[in-house]
Amino acid sequence: MASILCNNGAGVIGWRDENNTAGLWKLCTNGSNAYWHYNQSSGWWYLFNAGGTIGWRQKWFTVLLGSLPIGSIVKFNVKGALKNFIVVQHGRPAASYDASFDGGTILFSEATFDTRYSWWPNATDTVWMYWGSNMLCYALEREYLDNMDAALRQHVKTVYIPCGHATASGTVGVQLMPYRVFAPSHKELGFSASAFTAAAPNDGEIWAYRAAGGALPTGEWWTRTPVRFGSSSRSAVTSNMGSVNSAPVDITIRATAAMVLPQSMPVNTDGTLVY
Questions:
Q1: What are phi and psi of 195, to 5 degrees?
Q2: How far apart are CA 74 and CA 64, in angstroms?
Q3: 102-152 residue pLDDT tens
Q4: Which helix (H) or strand (E) holds 118?
Q5: What is the DSSP code string of 54-95?
Q6: How many CB atoms lie within 10 A of CB 236?
Q7: What pTM, to 2 d.p., does this model score?
Q8: Once rounded to an integer, what is the mean pLDDT over residues 13-17?
Q9: Among 147, 178, 172, 177, which residue's Cα sits nearest to residue 255?
Q10: Do the Cβ atoms of 44 and 57 come closer than 8 Å?
């Protein structure tokens, strides 16, 4: 793509956009052929001509979210403060996921956050499932989403994720449900159901970030995976210091958030989303 303004005078006469092919923005002049060059490792742009650097480096150019490497950090406001999110997956984690993930990038909160809600209201019910949990209905889909900038909320994609349920009789299962903000499953984090004495639901596939050995937030926090250990146990899987664990569903611990944004969304080279 190129757009050039021409005249026969001296000085700057326009910009030529060659970012898609050469990584350059050429500054059209009367022969000096100056250009901007992007240094991906530093995140800075430099203005060059044949004699070397002739201009200040800048960080106000943008890239697309879908072009960022797995493990990159992007930032946006939650509750009025910039928060870091990790690029954990572009598109579907596996073919078993719904097409609603196509054209999207999964972002995962780098840090946990406080929640006053348990995973499930009580530990005596005969069935407990993610799609009716306190974690989903209050901590994520209501409070967390509502605390994001309104201008960004409209870009958050609705995606169908595999959600698990468990029963007092020992059975587990999965159902696809539509959400905008969600907790990761134990499978997406790369945890194995073999760590449990009873089977956990097959509620997803490992994210590219975790498959590459990416680190998890510290502390103990909920996943969206329910699990049952015995006749009196109603539990859900947790991540505890990066390792798999579990906790009774009626206690309160911390949480994380994942969401899917369009790959076409602009990102400043300092990581802030443009919306």
A1: -75, -10
A2: 11
A3: 999 999 999 999 988 899 988 888 889 998 898 888 889 888 999 999 999
A4: none
A5: -S--B---EEEGGGSPTT-EEEEEETTEEEEEEEEEES-SST
A6: 29
A7: 0.78
A8: 42
A9: 147
A10: yes
